[in-house]
Design brief:
single chain; 611 residues; alpha/beta; Glutamine Phosphoribosylpyrophosphate, subunit 1, domain 1; Rossmann fold; eight-stranded antiparallel beta sheet; 23% strand; binds 5-amino-5-deoxy-1-O-phosphono-D-mannitol
């Protein structure tokens, strides 16, 4: 969703506040990019620059980075209420033009509040839910409250999800903040303090951060941080400071044309870091014990993370015989109804902030289930609310399309499945060692799979750029990877793509197949499935399909493929790790050949913090 950032700095400042906010917005652009803006307090006056369009275009047009002032806030938008436009862009101001706010989230009761404020004479300029907050603050300020009191009173009246920053022309050294259900992190700098939606925006200035919790409000000045829990009292910021390991380099393109391509190529490193991280963390074994005692196991997530969840469910079924119920997070109501004490939910979310997944997790917890979280972001909302967090160590993922976070999630979840089987006594020692040994080679496998397929992915993309539709078919353990391949090309190359169990294709989807229709077969290394897929390939070819096979180097099917995408001959359990990288490359090159920006696909945002 939207990205917000604010900085407070003194007159002796090392960096220009306008530049900090502008660069921060560029780093947060993956969160939303239909419009942007900044507000600064300069010599007792509030200045707002904003408009529709990408941040770099707005910089040329408006000079966002040129604003001065000891406090500056900025916003990059992913529209929810009100179409992308100059007037709906944040910051939003009150009637006097002396209070400005930026907001990420949704104010659910904005209609009631707006009606009341309009009755009191407030004049609204935009169609957003956000603007109501600026007028509410104004209302309290006008009636005599000091800025912080007015801000707090306004916050206590709003319902919904929010990360809000506010500045007042009359409080030129302070940025006020409030957080509920949308992420917000304070960065403790040298002679300055910052606050932003996400860590990459802060990394150039500091690695010392405080992840704000739901219900916290407060303010920053250049050398002070004040936090309180609304209605409960002050919080000691020092108790929550942590130092993040991510480097600035990890959050920049590092010579690649796009973040997505860089992140695809980072997979070998990310897999290794995740593996080492898990080896030194007792949480994996603890999680396996919790699961072994569970009455029932559910796994939930959205988008790509759901595919990782599906891989876990299929893996557990195969090596333990235990049924894991996977479900799409936004559908949680149908599943949470049946939950009872003794059940366990695994919630998978790279960002740890996806609202659908958070809601599912809360609904299960309320009914007595235990919660295990799998995330890439330490201290994010879902891990924080869980009984036990498990972390991938993929580093920051800036491209909107999930890549390295998917393969690292599947590595973590495969290891968890193997630990669960071992804890339950379902595996022979030799079987356990074989699976763990194969998973330990994940980095090597991903590395080979990438090195072998860059060229062929470019060639296949030359064909795919001309197509309107594509199928991704597989069976068994290959299915989540096929689904991930289809999602990837759909989101960044805008190609209509569907994934099906190959056996299901003859029950309807095959009707679309005609001469030249592209079908990608994801063939896991498994004799049983290979035999079944052979029949499905023949069915497709008989109807003129153009067949791309992503299959192990020793497959018996290679002569049937029009294009063979060769991946390492490893165990079935590493299928997402060996087979996904070339599918990511296919999506990437098809997108760029069609002239799109794969880092910022239309209508999408990296972290979806609305339901
Ligand atoms: O941060 P999360 O893993 O919870 O995000 C879930 C989905 O929104 C995400 O995977 C989305 O589908 C990506 N655009 C996939 O590339």
């Amino acid at each position: 969703m939207c990205g917000i950032i604010g900085v407070c700095s003194g007159p002796e400042k090392k960096f220009s506040t306008g530049e900090i906010v502008y660069k921060g917005l560029l780093r947060l652009e993956y969160r939303g990019y239909d419009s942007a803006g900044v507000a600064s307090v300069e010599e007792g006056t509030l200045r707002v620059l904003k408009g529709k369009g990408k941040i770099a275009e707005l910089e040329k047009k408006l000079g966002l980075s040129k604003v001065k002032g000891s406090v500056v806030i900025g916003h990059t938008r992913w529209a929810t209420h009100g179409a992308p436009s100059d007037v709906n862009a944040h910051p939003h101001t009150d009637c006097t033009g002396r209070i400005a706010i930026v907001h990420n989230g949704i104010i659910e009761n904005y209609r009631e509040l707006k009606e009341e404020l309009v009755r009191k004479g407030h004049v609204f300029k935009s169609e957003t839910d956000t603007e109501v907050v600026a007028h509410l603050i104004e209302e309290f300020y006008r009636s005599g409250d000091k800025p912080y009191e007015a801000f707090k009173k306004a916050i206590s009246m709003i319902k919904g999800s929010f990360a809000i920053l506010a500045v007042f022309a009359d409080a030129p050294s302070m940025i006020f903040f409030a957080k509920k259900d949308s992420p917000l992190v304070i960065g403790l700098g040298d002679g300055m303090n910052l606050v932003a939606s996400d860590i990459p925006a802060l990394l150039e200035y500091t690695r010392r951060v405080i992840t704000l919790r739901d219900g916290w409000v407060g303010f920053i000045t250049k050398d002070n941080v004040f936090i309180e829990e609304l209605g409960k009292g002050p919080v000691n910021p020092a108790d929550y400071v942590r130092v993040v390991e991510w480097s600035l380099e990890s959050a920049s393109k590092g010579g690649y044309q796009h973040f997505m391509l860089k992140e695809i190529h980072e997979q070998p490193r990310a897999l290794l870091d995740t593996l080492y991280g898990l080896r030194s963390d007792p949480a994996l074994k603890e999680a396996a014990e919790i699961l072994a005692e569970a009455r029932r196991i559910f796994i939930t997530a959205a988008g790509t993370s759901y595919h990782a969840g599906l891989h876990f469910a299929l893996t557990v079924a195969r090596i333990t015989g235990v049924l894991v119920t996977p479900f799409i997070a936004s559908e949680y109501e149908s599943y949470s109804r049946v939950v009872r004490e003794g059940d366990v939910l695994i919630a998978v979310s790279q960002s740890g902030e996806t609202m659908d997944t958070l809601k599912a997790a809360r609904a299960f917890k309320e009914r007595g289930a235990r919660l295990i979280a799998v995330s890439n972001i330490i201290d994010s909302a879902i891990p924080r609310e869980s009984d036990l967090p498990l972390y991938t160590r993929a580093g920051p993922e800036i491209g909107v399309a999930a890549t390295k976070t998917f393969t690292t999630q599947t590595l973590l979840l495969s290891l968890l499945a193997v630990e669960l089987a071992a804890t339950r006594g379902d595996l022979l020692k030799s079987e356990y060692e074989e699976y763990v040994g194969e998973l330990a080679k994940s980095s090597e496998y991903a590395s080979k799979s990438l090195a072998w397929n860059e060229g062929v992915a470019k060639k296949v993309s030359e064909m795919l750029r001309l197509k309107h539709s594509i199928y991704y078919l597989s069976r068994g353990i290959g299915l989540p990877t096929a689904m991930e391949g289809a999602l990837k090309i759909k989101e960044i190359a805008y190609l209509h793509a569907e994934a099906y169990p190959a056996g299901e294709s003859k029950h309807g989807p095959i009707a679309l197949v005609e001469e030249g229709f592209p079908v990608v077969f994801v063939v896991p290394r498994d004799q049983y499935y290979e035999k079944l897929i052979l029949g499905n390939i023949q069915e497709m070819k008989a109807r003129g399909a153009w067949v791309v096979g992503v299959a192990p180097e020793d497959t018996s099917l290679r002569d049937l493929f029009d294009v063979f995408i060769k991946v390492p001959a490893s165990s079935w359990i590493t299928t997402p790790i060996t087979h996904t990288p070339p599918l990511q490359l296919l999506a990437y090159y098809t997108s760029t050949l069609k002239g799109y920006d794969p880092d910022k696909p239309r209508n999408l945002a990296k972290t979806v913090t609305v339901e």
